TrEMBL record:
Domain of life: Bacteria
Protein name (Swiss-Prot/TrEMBL): Chromosome partitioning protein
Cited SUPFAM superfamilies: P-loop containing nucleoside triphosphate hydrolases
Organism: Salinibacter ruber
CobQ/CobB/MinD/ParA nucleotide binding domain sequence ranges: 6-183
PANTHER family hit by this protein: COBQ_COBB_MIND_PARA NUCLEOTIDE BINDING DOMAIN-CONTAINING PROTEIN, P-LOOP CONTAINING NUCLEOSIDE TRIPHOSPHATE HYDROLASE
InterPro entries: CobQ/CobB/MinD/ParA_Nub-bd_dom, DNA_Partitioning_ATPase, McdA, P-loop_NTPase
Amino acid sequence: MNVVGILHGKGGVGKSTIAVNLARALQLRGLEPVIVDCDAQSTAQSWRTSRGDDEKLPPVFSVEQSSALETDVQRLSDSFDIAIIDGGARLNEIHSEIVETSDLVLIPVQPSPADIWPTEVIIDLVKKRQEATGHPQAAFVIFRRKAGTKLGDHIQKVLGRFELPVWDGTCDRVSYAEAMGKGFSVVEMGDRKAAEEIQSITDNVLDILRHE
């Protein structure tokens, strides 16, 4: 089983949105994903229970203690293809555990300096782990980019100094909030551009994991 950790040092940057959309997109491609929810707000679990039909969504397991993460992920490994870890907002010990457990770490950032500054601690964790073991892979995923604005291009240049890939990610679209509230992924909704964004993220994830 591969493990994808989604991390940031603050809330509201798109961790849960990317986690549930990615998990559902993987499921619709015939894979068996599981969401490991380390967020005290349990957004992923709320997403799953808000679905109004009998569709089987990816299961969500909650982990609150960092010491339990590796054991819980190993326990799931025989039943699923990919675990998506929705990391909590606080910079604490569990972030280190997620980095150590993951094959790929995604760092969502909105196009704002206030979102970039808290990532430096996570990047440091990733770099130290890479130096010690060669893993995990990592990438920034821009979230709520304003389509057609120069600010998004500027943020990509700023992130470039960290020497990690920068994915285009998502634009600021109401369909993400609508899908989240209904227990859907945007790949199931009518917003073609939003669906293409998530499919692109999914393609990137699978490409990296296949080369692991």
